[in-house]
User: What shape does this take?
Amino acid sequence: MTNSLSGAGQQQTQAQHQKITRLKFARRILFMIIGTILVSVGLEIFLVPNHIIDGGIVGISIILSHLSSFPIGLFLVILNLPFVLLGYKQIGKTFAISTTFSVILMSIGTTLLHPVQAITIDPLLAAVFGGIILGIGVGLVIRSGGSLDGTEIIAILFSKKMPFSVGEIVMFFNLFILGSAGFVFGWDRAMYSLIAYFIAFKMIDITIEGLDQSKSVWIISDEYAKIGDAITSRLGRGVTYLKGEGAYTGDDKKVIFSVITRLEEAKLKSIVDDLDPKAFLAIGNIHDVKGGRFRKKDIH
Assistant: This one.
């Protein structure tokens, strides 16, 4: 009887695990679809009709589509998929499948929206709002584990044989592509493209990291106990005390480590200044927080 109950419990746990996995998978697919729809709207309703391009493979596809009269979606697939296959061993099976799925969806979306009339013919409005919508869409796809551009895959492969980082190679590619827009669409459109690219870049960061960005905090103070208690009670944040030693004096020190949100930074500085104006305080941005006692709580 005990074995049967144990077996039933294991089956129930496995069923719950499968349910959660399927739920996460469905959520990822949903956000990928929403992301690619937004990217397609940003391109075909704002940027492309106004001869404004984005960086990477998308930018190359816009230029080639203009020169050849073939749809952008065709070039998005032709140019992206070979690099996904080339970088299959570097990026992993799941990422490759997600990227392929996203690229195909984006290709379909841009093709369906191509006949739709642009919302605005003002290039500045198109660059701003197109960049915002495009950036949010790309950010959603990246958060879901996919990608819409093979440029990063190229950069990863090149960085192994060249003395440049992935970020530097991507930046070089994008500057070259955005500069090429000047010869095809005119230099004023190239400058609008830079505006759209910059806005999209910032929106990708905001979408991935969120508006309520997390920050790591390091505090060295003789009043560590009071400061730690205040952070816990007034900000609702967990605090960890680390053992430190001054390199110059050799004195033992307590180091406070905690994680807060961007909105709590001013309050934290106020707490430290009130309790120990001479305290050492270092605050840095972090991209992701998981587990522990990190939770939302009203500031008071």
Q: What stands out?
A: Residues 1-19, 296-300 have pLDDT under 50 and may be disordered. Strands lie at 214-220, 239-245, 252-261, 280-285. Residues 2-47 form the longest helix (46 residues). The longest strand covers residues 252-261.
